[in-house]
Design a protein that fits this description.
- A two-stranded antiparallel ribbon has the order 1-2.
- The radius of gyration is 17 Å and the shape is extended.
- It folds into 2 domains: 33 residues, no CATH class; 76 residues, no CATH class.
- It is mainly α.
- The chain is built from 4 helices and 2 strands, in the order ββαααα.
Length: 113
């Protein structure tokens, strides 16, 4: 269905993109994909970039294994980034997602890993 090519050739992680799109289709989830240019002063975009980078660095995929002992400095950095996040995004606390609305592997309550 997707050719997964760009102007320079093959798209990196095309297999992962395909799996994500298949999960989205399977669960009937609607997602609106948008390109948001970075570093141009869009409110909340800098925070989103920091959080995305933090997620990338904390990913067990980065090291090819899952660690049961969290890195203290990353936890501290996460606390600093999330501190005040409510004012950036305009909410006080994100409500938990109803379990029946989420596939089991994607369900989580805010504040849980």
């Amino acid at each position: 269905r997707h050719k997964w090519r760009n102007t320079t050739g093959e798209v990196a992680h095309a297999d992962l993109c395909t799996q994500i799109l298949e999960l989205i289709d399977r669960y009937g989830t609607e997602i609106k994909w948008m390109h948001i240019p970075s570093h141009i002063g869009i409110r909340g975009n800098e925070k989103a970039d920091q959080l995305a980078d933090l997620g990338r660095r904390k990913s067990p995929l980065l090291f090819g294994r899952i660690s049961v002992s969290p890195r203290l400095e990353e936890e501290e950095e996460e606390r600093e980034l999330l501190e005040g996040e409510a004012s950036v995004w305009g909410y006080e606390e994100e409500p938990p997602l109803p379990e029946e609305d989420c596939p089991p592997t994607l369900y989580r309550t805010p504040g849980t890993p």
